[in-house]
Design a protein that fits this description.
Layout (H helix, E strand, L loop, with lengths): L1 H11 L25 E7 L4 H17 L3 E8 L9 E6 L12 E7 L5 E9 L5 E2 L9 E2 H12 L29 H11 L2
Parallel strand pairs: 1-2, 1-3, 3-5, 6-7
Antiparallel strand pairs: 4-5
Helix pairs in contact: 2-3
Length: 196
Amino acid sequence: MRGIFLLVAAALILFSCREQGRGVDNDSGGIHLRTSQRVEYYLNMEANDQTEVAVRETFERWGEATHFDFVYKGRHRAGLHRDGKNTVSFLLRWPEEIPIGKIAYCKNWYDGKGNIVESDIIFNMSVAGFTTRRTRTPGYYYIEGVLAHEVGHMIGLDHIEEADCLMKALSPSEESYFMGRIDEKTLRRYRELYKK
């Protein structure tokens, strides 16, 4: 029954949309991480070891492709909390303020200039199952792919509507954003935003 529900949900569910800050459009180049290079992040305490490996490898992939130095700092409480810590959480109870149909979501907080100062990424375990490139559970979403997409939002990227692009709005479970491959179109948008 869960498998049927996941297949139906996969056809209907949208991935995250990054929250906009003070009406500033990302295309203006005004929304980006305030930090110049080092970005620390945490994982919720309940996540298992396989999940930790997938999360750390995804951030490493983004670090290799960009100027950011993503640094894993350990475990932290789950959820969306403005507490000075960028946290990735896998939630059984989805926050009421976020539409239930989202597989994952990135919430950004901004300073007075529209720069991102903190981000939390949440995965919705109440509507989807998640797997890794090592476990490859059929019908489940790849953590690496979904997280790679959300990290794009974390650093200020909007959706890019190209079929082969990590930052497209939709990706079926069997594709799951290409298991985290960061394509040239996504990197071009990153370089435009950060003048790299």
